[in-house]
Design brief:
alpha+beta, binds N-oxalylglycine, 2 domains, 21% helix, globular, Double-stranded beta-helix, 19 strands, single chain, binds manganese (II) ion
Length: 299
Amino acid sequence: MSSAAAAISSATSSARVHIRPTGAALGADVLGLDLSRPLEADTLQALQAAWDQHLVLRFRGQQQLTVDDHIRFSRHFGVLDQRPLAAKGLHAQTAALPQEITVISNLRQDGQALGGLGDGEAVWHADMTYQTIPPKAALLLAREVPAAGGNTYFANLYLAYDSLPADLRQQIQSLECVHDASRNSAGELRLGFADTTDPRQTVGAIHPLVRVHPGTGRKSLYLGRRRNAYIQGLTLEDSEALLDTLWAHAVQPQLTWGQQWQEGDLVAWDNRVTLHRRDAFDPQARRYMHRTQVSERTA
Ligand code: OGA
Ligand code: MN
């Protein structure tokens, strides 16, 4: 920012938020904000508007954020979820963090994992859509990143819906899909779940394939994750074929954007209208992120 621009923006705080779209199907950088400092109401309003428009916001250079800053900033967008109890066998260093922080990392110390998801690929998904009321958003802060690999890609599910052939859009209007709770995006079986491969046996929440975003009023495709998904009322064969078609459509490269992480990147995604996936990376490399999750609950 030039000093003239800086002078103007200190006069009107809403002008402090400079949004630079990625130029891809979704995503924008938010420039010129230090998230460790208190934010004015009109700045927050501008951020919410940018988030609604771009679905994923990236704030670079936030390495100075403390754990408490990260939590405080995240709370502007709603009630925060606590990290899953199933964080079994986690290192004491992680257990000592506030309950609002989940660690995503491949690092191990004293034979124990510091966080979840390891170093492998995380397949396309939205977070926890197997719950009746899935989370609204997540804010992932990179504290250590590999020199290469571990990129995270996002897909725009408004565009996926809008660009469907009209007959397909019509066909899915009133269909509902069961979202599998049994495995996480790294493919690990969750505690207490049977290892089923028949989508008709899937245990998890049922959601419409088309949802309306409460903030924007726009319709989007709603897919969750592919594995064990099942469209209610269809034969298994028809459900599989329709889901394959919708998934192939939704994750076409022109509907996505890829984030190459730098230390200090805070990336916030609207979990209701995006999917994400992560590349694998070198197991010897260090990747360590802190994550908060915003609930759809209001209390
Ligand atoms: C997540 C997730 C991907 C990544 O935190 O929900 O899928 O890049 N993370 O670590
Ligand atoms: Mn995820």
